[in-house]
Amino acid sequence: MNWETFLNSTLVENLGWTLLHSIWQIGLIALVLFFILRLLRNFSANSRYLLAVSAMFLMLALPLATFVLLERDATQNQFTVKTYDFENADLVRAKAQTGENRLVLPENKLQPANLSNENDFFSIGNLQKSIKENLSSVLPALVGLWIFGVGIFTFRLFGGVFQLHKYKTRDISAPDTKWQAKFATLCEQLKIRQTVRLVQSNLVKTPIVVGWLKPVVLIPASVFLQITPKELETILAHELLHIRRYDNLVNFVQSFAEILFFYHPCGWWVSGVIRREREFACDEAVLKMLDSPRIVYASALANLEEIRLRANQSLPSVSMAATGGKLMTRIQRILQKNAETRTSSKQSFLSASLALLLISAVLTMVFWTGTGTPVNAQDKNRGKNKLMAVGFVSIPPVDRMENPPKDADATARLMIANLKAHKIPAIGFVQGGMISDGEKLYPVRANIVRLWRDAGFEIGIGGYKHIWFYDTPFADYVANTEKNEGAVKQILAEKNLPLRYFSYPFLNTGKTAEDKSQFETWLNNRGLRSVKYTFDNSEWIYSYAYDEARKDNDINTMSEIRAAYVDYMTRMTDHYEAYSTEMFGRDIAQTMVLTPSRLVSDTFDDVFGMLEKRGYRFVSMDEAQKDEAYNTAENFTGVKAGISWFERWQMAQGKKLRDEPKVSQSVEAVWNKRRAKNAPAPPKPPVPPTPPMPPAN
After folding, report:
1. Phi and psi for 449 in degrees, rounded to 5?
2. pTM of the prediction?
3. pLDDT digits (tens, 9 = 90+) for 139-195
4. C-alpha span between 597 and 381 (Å, rounded)
5. Domains located in the chain, CATH noted
6. SS3 call for 490
7. How far apart are alpha carbons 501 and 485 in whole angstroms?
8. Pairing between strand 208-210 and 320-321?
9. Which residues of 353-374 are buried (b: 16+ CB within 10 A; e: fewer)?
């Protein structure tokens, strides 16, 4: 059979008529479903979901029944035509002699007797008769376009299946045993008979379920750190409920229906209703099953969606994700009390309303800024009122490994790559004694500074030696700075770059107000400006402990330190944001100080991802310190300490300092051990006097 014969065949004709009939059939089904859902709007989400699924199966069944009826009619008509031809042989021969291929029969001799009243419900015969002359010629083209569309959407479906297979098999690992035990408990609690695996993945950015015969729950590795255990428990329960309800299987059939009826808006609407009500039904089941407050589950969904948007990852439609459906509506429903569970407590009502309002505001901001573009440090559509500049002291990285120059070079390259990936215009402050003997540059370490310079990052200076201004006479402190200035300017002069910023070692600005004022004047006269850090922290303690674990190749301790450090930096962010709100009633442009350590590099995505999630946009030191907050007066002197400018401003106003988050006890113990090891030896006890010799006999 050639292509032309196929296009003129009865099969194509009947398929074309089936497509035309499906337009009004699917539209009618959607209309009926719309009114039924309106009548049953107060029913459970699961009931509404079952109605929508029934409508979808009816959408598949009616066109199939139509095609079967048309094929049966065509077969019966062919049989009738053959009988008539036998009885009118002369007419047949006459037509053959004229070269006509089709037999034209008198209308009063052949009627489609098979279209009896039993088929009037579909109106197939009547509809064909009225519009046949106008539409018959376009049926082959209509079928051709439909086949082309089905091919495109089928290719899309198989692409999604392949993507899910990749998620299921690549870059996965077993989660912590604690979570495996918790997952097994949830499976038992939900009475899931299937064997379900829980794995953590470095590819997916939001939890999903893959497969229905051998389902796998994929959890992003970062999620274990970015949301609380209680929140993650609710998400796991949600995914397991999808498995228990066989939602994955229904979702696959739904994807098949979307392929067949890609041309019909009502088909997409019904599919959207199914997805929406399915998520509502799972949400209701989660809340009935767990004793976690509604706000915990709502916060979990909001956090996951922000993580997904930041990663800019679109999941295949054939997958099942906790963040599916209309998230804003889901959270509103979760936070609203059902009629049978309402309490008369005014306080509970106000708390739920406030939580709904806050989360609604957050999600409105997230969706308003757009879901189609990646969230990165330079995205002008995100977090416009939150700015942060980052300064690193000191470069080159501190050498703590057995082969210092090699390790420092590797750490610097990793740091530069991370800064570029997150588009952070950082500034690095050089400690001159690490790159020069005061006259000549050390080639390897000086080249690390050149790496920083050539990557487009600004270079500033600290002291030639990292010393306390409090302990150093003014003239010596100036000489220490000037010596560093000379070493760094050699490197900057190679590219005709200016030197503009100075960072106080240990953030200590001197013993007296006079010393501080004189040194600031000295800096200004040399075209330098000091940096005021609002976001100080004890990252260097964590970095020291991390490098000690690296030297011992203690992978478990390294992992524990990374997790503790990310948690610490999250709490420190809360701490300084609270200062900003308390003092200025807004989010001022922050300036954060870090060391270019391997720990900072290895946790870069987690820490700076957390900051991006909070809405920070990273800017240059110039832009950050243009904030009028940096003109606030402070008079911190006379104490051997280095504290943030928030604390200085607070003290100048006579206010009590906020309690600062504590460093992990295990990490601090490593630092204290180092201090004890480097401390001077205690004085030897005095030698007891020699007792007198007994007299000679």
Report:
1. -65, -40
2. 0.48
3. 778 888 888 888 888 888 888 888 888 888 888 888 888 888 888 888 888 888 888
4. 31
5. 3-145 (no CATH), 154-338+345-368 (no CATH), 387-676 (3.20.20.370)
6. helix
7. 11
8. antiparallel
9. eebbeebbebbeebeebeeeee
